[in-house]
Amino acid sequence: MIDGEPIIEVRDFSYAIGGKRILDRVTLDVRRGEYLSVIGPNGAGKTTLLKCMDRILSGGTGSVSIGGRPLAEHSQKALARIVAYVPQADGRYAPFTVREFVTMGRYPHLSPFTSIGSTDRAAVDRALEMTDTARFADRRHSSLSGGEAQKVHIAAALAQEAEVLLLDEPTTFLDPHHQEEIGAILARVNRASGTTIVAVTHDVNRAALSSTRIVALKAGRIVYAGSPRGVMTGDVLAALYDKTFLFASHPRTGTPMIVPDTGDHDDAT
């Protein structure tokens, strides 16, 4: 449930790499319990924004606050109790079993002088069940398919028991079956437990169906922030991606969906 209170506050934030401005005076609130999708063309600054929220990238001008405190004031463990980050799938595997890998997500709750306890094991078991990965918990991480591995990465983030999941293109390179599974897992986590989701995606259709709100970035600036239906218009998306789109209504929800252009005509509906 969205309670209206921001858990992440970004104010007039800019970030540059090698003298090139990647984010340009971004101001954004992420409210507790919402499912926020971040869309935009390649190079728009989407991944950079996500990494700045989790301090994977440091620096920049302006401010970022997490849980009502400036980002810089959080210790790494304190930050990890609020925010968990799931990177893009990159084909690399860890030398652990699935259960061992997911258990590493408990690190914010442990100290060098404590061992895994019943509370930690219960959190790991819940994460495995929620992602349908318990059935191969004893397999080696390196034996997994791309879709299975992505579910395990989400399970590790859930075992972290953070309030916010930041996901960088969670369904990229996955087949339609695993895309659907990942989408269902994230929707369930958001609705059942109230976990806040912030997901960078190129799948505009899925964002329109899954999100409570969509933010669009172009050239490092926010050019749209609002309802999923509001973004699914020819004018908004044409300005965002510099191309025209065709739309058809989803047969169940009525939401406008992007459909492929056959190339037989010049006008977009």
The helix-strand sequence is: EEEHEEHEHHHEHEHEEHHEE
What structural class do the secondary elements suggest? alpha/beta
For the residues shown, what is the average pLDDT?
92
Distance between the termini: 35 Å
Largest sheet: 6 strands, mixed
- How big is the Rg? 19 Å
Strand content: 25-35%
The overall strand count is 12
**Helix fraction?**
25-40%
Question: What is the overall number of helices?
Answer: 9
Sum up the overall morphology in one term. Answer: globular
Strand arrangement, major sheet? 6-7-8-3-9-10
Stretches with pLDDT under 50, minimum 5 residues: none
Summarize the structure in words:
The chain is an alpha/beta fold and 269 residues long. It is 31% helix and 26% strand. It contains nine helices and twelve strands. The protein has helices at 46-53, 76-80, 98-103, 118-130, 146-159, 176-193, 204-210, 228-231, 234-241, and strands spanning 6-17, 20-31, 35-39, 61-66, 69-70, 83-86, 164-168, 196-200, 213-218, 221-226, 246-249, 256-259. The strands form three sheets. Strands 6-7-8-3-9-10 form a six-stranded mixed β-sheet, with helices on both faces. Strands 2-1-4-5 form a four-stranded antiparallel β-sheet, with helices on one face. The longest helix has 18 residues, at 176-193. The two termini are 35 Å apart.
